[in-house]
Amino acid sequence: MRKICRAAVAVVLIAASSAAHSAGQGNPLPQQKTGPPPENAVEGPNLRQPTVTVFDHEEVQGVLGREVRSGANENMGRIVDVLVDRDGQARAAIIDFGGFLGVGSRKIAVAWNALRFPSDAKKTEPIGLDLTRDQVQAAPEYKEDKPVVVLGASGRLEQLPF
What we know:
Helices cover 18% and strands 27% of the residues. It is built from 2 helices and 10 strands, in the order αββββββββαββ. It is elongated, with a radius of gyration of 18 Å.
C-alpha cells in the first residue's frame, strides 16, 4: 500500500513540476475545473469540494519502471520507488542498480535533483542521472525501515531527515 501511495504522489509531483516548468516557458497551466459533488458525496462543515486538474498527456510522465542512464550513456537500472518528505516533496528515487535480470541487483537512493527528465515526455526515452556508474556502485544499499542515505549529484552521501 505504501508503495502505491508513493507512486501516486510521484506521478502528481512530476505532473506539477512539469506544469510549473511549462508555465515558465509561456505555456498555459492546466485548467482547474470544479463541479457539483457526486451523488454519493458526504456533506459536512469540514469537507471541501474536490478540484479536478486536467493535464495534457504530453505534459506529464510516469517514472516507475523507467530506465535510468548516466551522462556517459551507462545503464544505471530502473526507478522502482520514489521517496517523498513529510511535505510531500519528492526527495529521492530508488534505482534497482546492477545485477543481471534482477539477480544481484541493489536498490540505491539517488537525489531527485540528480535526475534529468526528457522534455518531450516520451515513455521510451531514458531518464538521465548526473552520477557515474562508479559513484552509484559505491553507495550504500537502500533498505526500507532503515535510515535513508541518498547519493546527491555532487557524488556525496546525505541522510534524509525522516
